[in-house]
Amino acid sequence: MSSELVSLQETIKEKSEFVDRLNAEIAKVIVGQKPMVDRLLVGLLAGGHVLLEGVPGLAKTLAVKTIARAIRASFQRIQFTPDLLPADLIGTLVFNQKDGTFTPRKGPIFANIVLADEINRAPAKVQSALLEAMQEHQVTVGDTTYPLPEPFMVLATQNPIEQEGTYPLPEAQVDRFMLKLQIGYPSRREERLILDKMTEALGVSGKEEDPVAEFGVQPVVTPEEIQEARRLVRQVYVDEKIKNYILDIVFATRNPEEAHLDIGPYIKYGASPRATIYLALAAKAYAFLRHRAHVTPDDVKTIALDVLRHRIILTYEAEAEDVKAEDIIKVIFEEVPVP
User: Fold this and answer.
1) What are the pLDDT digits (tens) for 272-298?
2) What is this structure's pTM?
3) Strand, helix or coil at 198?
4) What are the structural domains, with CATH classification, of the chain?
5) Tell me, what's the pLDDT at 162?
6) How far is 36 from 27, CA to CA, in rounded Å?
């Protein structure tokens, strides 16, 4: 191991200590769901947005609120509805009758962490306004462009079982999300802990209290420290063999025949170059969460499913045979040689 890597390892070990404190604060409220929490932190540290898909009641919103509280970040929750307007998201110009001028009134998008609840319920104009914020970290109100606060992160949720009154997200927007998470049910043991913990958080008035405040979640890291951690994440070492492994995985989704895979009839479009970039960044962030200064093949395999599942467009044949993107990725993991 070179002296530079040793020095980087010592720096990352020191600067990543807040991760343990952050996890401890989150665990005060969130029971189980460790993979979800890890990936939310990966998105935060890698500078990516996260799309969460799961049935209601799986603590998606609660996890986001808890993380925002624990890092002393500004947080806004926006409930997306079919009648939502772009101005409800980014703000608008308000006419001042006294001096005859327009004054900008900034919308809820101006926050460090923005929760777009049920994102697929909003029409195309709202999605377009959100897309500029996600990609450029800025919004335009009138003829003026305003930068968004850093760190900036969009966490979006969508309900997979209810399609009435929803709008499918454009592929260009879905591709802007670094990770797409499939949130599952907790185990029986975890749900018993949830039962005990959350029924104790019921106020004497009979009104449900805010668990984030009820369980005393405290800020343990600042946005400035997150920004510094993001810079360190970019420095995490990725070996040439690991880079080639990432390329092998992504190219197997585009040209499976060259990788000697028989999944070609199921893939209409493979993952874009953005997938390659995001997979490398997410693997670096995952290594940082483990206090390491280098990426391993396991880091790539652990995070690749969430980076790729929404970037593989399936054919009608795949839908007819009930082949999911996860099935294709599993085949790729099994067949592509690991360095």
Assistant:
1) 899 999 999 999 999 999 999 899 999
2) 0.87
3) helix
4) 3-191+221-228 (3.40.50.300), 236-335 (1.10.8.80)
5) 60
6) 12
